[in-house]
Design brief:
Blueprint: H1 3-9, E1 18-21, E2 30-34, H2 51-54, H3 62-65, E3 75-79, E4 100-101, H4 112-115, E5 124-127, E6 130-133, E7 139-140, H5 141-170, E8 173-181, H6 185-188, E9 200-203, H7 212-224, E10 229-231, H8 239-244, E11 251-259, H9 275-300
Parallel strand pairs: 2-3, 2-8, 4-7, 8-11, 9-10
Antiparallel strand pairs: 1-3, 5-6, 9-11
Length: 301
């Protein structure tokens, strides 16, 4: 990607925080979302680290890898803004009072992610096991409220609308939460006893957010393509699948993580030779998922 294209790729899009790609042709109760692949960096970010380091937080190209979902009857939703600016896969209350300049108007509930510097508003980013602060000063109340109102809430509203539409129309939904993971994730987590990182990690919060046959179908299909697959290790899923997944109500939610070197160079963020083969395999997986959903709908009558 040349310098001009790279600049355009990263340009702010304040009027388009989220893009919704509706199903083309047949509509199925499948909703897919990519909350972390955004590369449009808001002009008011105010970060104090180089862009090359900041971009390590992106799930770069994930939405592009899965962009054929609408042709298979699914709605695809993607954030255009980066997760390092504000993370759609965190609770609105997942903030540390110490990171805010001023009195926050409602009670906060900082999670372990916030304590790691990776909450709603990221505070640091790591490379080679070294964590670097993102900012030189705390964000003001007004700055954080702006990010929530203009970016976090529109994303959640679009996703909630797509989920609700599927449930109302079909009586259920199959939701896939799409991500990628850094190759050094275990080092970032401080894990020294970890197994080799799988090519794909499927998360259902230890069997609570989707039917077991659904996660097994996805895992076995990926393994059939030759990829290694792990379940809930080291990622189980966070805010979004925890909120959406209620399999006893026909609401199935599954998180899919792809190891980044499978499809891109982590330093340059450019697609590598594995990108197109992976994209082809994911297209085949989409057809398998669509067939499963059709079968489940027919079984329910």
């Amino acid at each position: 990607m040349d310098r001009m294209a790279q600049t355009d790729f990263l340009r702010p899009r304040p009027d388009t925080p989220v893009v919704v790609h509706p199903a083309t042709g047949e509509v199925l109760p499948i909703v897919c979302d990519s909350p972390h692949s955004g590369t449009s960096y808001p002009a008011d970010f105010g970060h104090a680290v180089p862009m090359s380091l900041l971009r390590r937080g992106e799930d770069t190209h994930v939405a592009a890898l899965w962009d054929q979902w609408p042709a298979h009857g699914a709605t695809l939703i993607e954030a255009t803004f980066p997760r390092t600016y504000i993370d759609p896969n965190r609770s609105e209350a997942d903030l540390d009072p110490a990171q805010i300049d001023g009195q926050w108007p409602v009670p906060l509930a900082p999670s372990v992610k916030t304590r790691q510097g990776l909450g709603l508003i990221w505070q640091r980013i790591s490379r080679d096991g070294v964590a670097t602060p993102l900012y030189e000063r705390p964000r003001t109340v007004a700055e954080v409220e702006h990010r929530i109102a203009r970016y976090w809430r529109p994303y959640h509203a679009a996703l909630a609308q797509a989920i609700d539409d599927s449930v109302q129309r079909f009586g259920g939904v199959w939701h896939l939460n799409l991500h990628s993971m850094p190759n050094d994730v275990y080092k970032r987590l401080g894990r020294t006893d970890a197994p080799p990182l799988a090519d794909f990690v499927l998360g259902d919060r230890d069997g609570t957010t989707c039917a077991p046959e659904f996660i097994q179908l996805v895992g076995e299909t990926l393994a059939g393509f030759g990829y290694s697959v792990a379940y809930n290790e080291p990622y189980k899923g966070v805010e979004l699948i925890g909120r959406i997944g209620q399999p006893h109500l026909g609401r199935h939610s599954l998180q899919i993580e792809i190891r980044r070197p499978v499809y891109m160079d982590e330093d340059t963020r450019e697609p590598n030779a594995g990108f197109e083969p992976l994209r082809g395999h994911l297209r085949e997986l989409m057809a398998v998922v669509a067939a499963h959903v059709r079968s489940e709908m027919a079984r329910r009558g």
